[in-house]
Design brief:
299 residues, alpha/beta, Rossmann fold, 2 domains, two-stranded antiparallel ribbon, 38% helix
């Protein structure tokens, strides 16, 4: 591919590329670099491509890059085109079997890693990642907290199979045990009852009626099961609030990601649940509550 073709594709992306607010890394330059590397047989996420120079003009066939650019401008997510998404320092696999990890979920990951670091009373914390999707939270915890025993579950068999592929890709396949089932149901056994240090979840929380009005890049390509939160958008959240205490040991934490606008009301509601003794919230740069941390009361 010539330098002129690269410049022309960059100009097209600069003029026509529409990106979502939760994917700020997908600039025209980073997008083109990621697609260029992918066409050259060395797929990279936008963040991974950001730190590298563009491939040499002869490294990528022009037709392949042009096709990828066309598909991106037609709305296909960059992470699905490259098969990669960066999350918490990990270059992960990405595919339509699972939701693409977002920056809000990195806020949740940072919050739970801080909890695990502070909790010196538990030398080998038992962690459950619910609605694991691609396994991004589970693998981030396993990577950053080597002493944790990490388990993950999802209702989707396809998502769990894909998450297991991600584990092999990351070299973390022996650090996370996967199960298939409805929320916490796979863990309602003595091994976990009253013995779990942390339950973490980035659940579906979009109101069902709003799903079809979401950006095409989400509604057309990403799995609906991963973001449709039911008629009120909080169905799964409310089930987790109710079910988590029977698994958490006294002082253990439930950490969840919530949708914009949902946080304050949910936090107030949790203040009146006797099973929890402490409620914390984490806000984004705009002041929106995006993470709620609930600590099980000490009996």
């Amino acid at each position: 591919m010539s330098v002129e073709t690269y410049a022309a594709l960059h100009a097209r992306l600069a003029q026509h590329l529409v990106t979502l607010p939760d994917k700020p890394e997908e600039t025209p330059e980073n997008t083109l670099r990621a697609l260029w590397h992918t066409a050259a047989g060395n797929p990279k996420s936008a963040i991974a491509a950001m730190g590298e120079a563009p491939p040499l003009p002869t490294d990528s066939p022009s037709d392949a890059v042009i096709e990828l650019v066309n598909r991106r401008l037609a709305g296909e997510p960059l992470a699905y085109l490259t098969g990669r998404q960066h999350f918490m320092g990990l270059e992960m696999l990405s595919a339509p079997q699972a939701l693409i990890p977002r920056v809000e979920t990195e806020m949740l990951a940072h919050a739970v890693l801080e909890l695990l670091d502070v909790d010196q009373d538990c030398a080998s914390p038992r962690v459950i990642d619910v609605c694991t999707g691609s396994g991004n939270l589970a693998f981030a915890i396993a990577h950053n907290c080597p002493h944790a025993r990490v388990f993950a579950t999802d209702l989707s068999e396809e998502a769990v199979a894909f998450a297991q592929r991600n584990g092999a890709h990351l070299g973390l396949q022996d650090r996370v045990q996967f199960r298939i089932g409805d929320l916490l149901e796979p863990f309602l056994v003595p091994e976990f009852l009253n013995r779990t240090s942390l339950i973490v979840c980035a659940p579906p929380y979009i109101h069902s009626a709003k799903v079809d009005r979401m950006a095409d890049e989400i509604a057309r390509y990403e799995p609906r099961l991963a973001f449709d939160g039911g008629p009120l958008g909080v169905t799964i959240l409310m089930r987790l609030f109710e079910d988590a205490p029977q698994l958490l040991h006294p002082g253990g934490w439930l950490a969840i990601e919530v949708g914009a606008g949902q946080g304050p009301a949910l936090a107030r509601r949790l203040q009146h649940v006797k099973a929890y003794s402490e409620i914390r919230t984490v806000t984004d740069a705009g002041g929106e509550v995006r993470v709620i941390l609930s600590r099980r009361a000490v009996d």
